[in-house]
Amino acid sequence: MLTLSDTPPARLDKALAQVVPEDVSLSRSRIGKLIEQGAVRRVGSDVVTVLKTKGVAGEEWQIDMPAPAPLLAVAQDIPVEVVFEDEHLIVVNKPAGMVVHPVPGSEDGTLVNALLHHCGDSLAGIGGEKRPGIVHRIDKDTSGLLVVAKSDAAHQGLAKQFADHSIERRYVAFVFGSPSPGDPRVRGLAGVAFETGGVLRVATNIARHKTDRKRMSVVVNRGRHAITRAQTVHSYGRPGKFVAAQIDCWLETGRTHQIRVHMAHTGHGLIGDPTYGGRRKLPLTSISREDAAIINGFKRQALHAAKLGFIHPISGEKVSLESDLPNDLIVLRSILEKF
Description:
By secondary structure, the protein is of the alpha+beta class.
């Protein structure tokens, strides 16, 4: 049941998308298709199938969701870099561009497809689970370490550690500008502070954007609490005019797009981020045309899951793993060093 806002947009699909709860992944285009399919109705009235139907403030609408079509993941012989593996779990180094789990539009070529082939029938949950053994995800265009359970006991044990935020996750990111404790603009932002050692702490609520369901945003009085910490490793440029920085980020919580949203909130969005990077560009006058082309053509967020630490859910031993930067980020860093 959805209640329209006090000032709903003119089109019904936009009006409903505006009030969909943040924990429901329902885009405006998906709502539009449901309207045309006769799955949307005014409460106490008939089905509406016209997108241009205008809703009234406070009006209640119902969406009758059809039963989801099962995504039948199939084993595919896709190379996957294994960092650690035993009979209970596997840790892989996911390349940028690979989706973790099959979704409409990306039904194959995913990490799950690769793991089904690599592990055979030993992954947890096969034959019923829609996300066999997957206890966390990283974005398609984020590279780095990801752990997957191969047994039910490992799945439960890892899920508990993710739920209580005891998993250690460290990321390397390259951002516009350089976060500085001396910057009054950053210090004045809601939820932003600097801790001992110049550690940037961002603590806000994050929820789905009201009109763009593919984006997340910093919000007040709704959403889920999220805490990110970041520390500058190296600044590129010169004092007072730093153009970019390499930062280490670590998560106290694990929300969708958390690092990307929080760094954009501080005004230091990730280089190459097509969703949260905005229109900000690096000054390219001091580098070659070839280097400028690489920077301008960098089409994925410069983010790498570099460290992963957890307690093995079966043996109880500490597992600490690291992943080197992939080649594209090494090249990016080498160009930034020229500023």
